[in-house]
């Protein structure tokens, strides 16, 4: 029987984008935590240096989708209806973390809030809201 860690890794392996960016999922204190290890090719601003904004947004959207797959215990990946992100500070050239909070989970739609940080969850790099269509 597969343990939870194996199931999470298998889920990520099914997503070419998650594999490309090196995304990881862990369970900390009973909550899913998404991890994006730093990779030099993810830099978008060489002068700071800082992570590419599109990478941060893609990581956060993928976190919302994977979070819903995990909590619904299904292989069906939701479809993004709307995704809105607020960039609050630069995502420097280091690891990025994210957690999700489901604000509405209906039969057909879900709303998920995502917070991404580097140093501390109290100082988010970006926050996002995802409106997802469930199948």
Please indicate the percent range of residues in DSSP E strands (runs of 2 or more): 35-45%
Write down the secondary-structure element order.
HHEEEEHEEEE
Give the strand line-up of the largest sheet. Answer: 1-2-6-7-8-5
Low-pLDDT residue spans: none
Oligomer: single chain
Gross morphology is globular
Query: Mean pLDDT across all residues, rounded?
Result: 91
**Major sheet size, sense and barrel closure:** 6 strands, antiparallel
Distance between the termini: 27 Å
- Tell me the number of strands: 8
Q: In DSSP terms, counting alpha (H) and pi (I) runs of 4 or more, how many helices?
A: 3
Cα gyration radius (Å): 14 Å
Quickly give the structural class.
alpha+beta
Helix content: 25-40%
Detail the topology: elements first, then pairings.
Blueprint: H1 4-13, H2 16-21, E1 24-28, E2 31-36, E3 43-45, E4 50-51, H3 53-72, E5 79-87, E6 96-105, E7 109-117, E8 124-133
Antiparallel strand pairs: 1-2, 2-6, 3-4, 5-8, 6-7, 7-8
What attributes does this structure have?
alpha+beta; globular; 135 residues; 6-stranded antiparallel beta sheet; two-stranded antiparallel ribbon
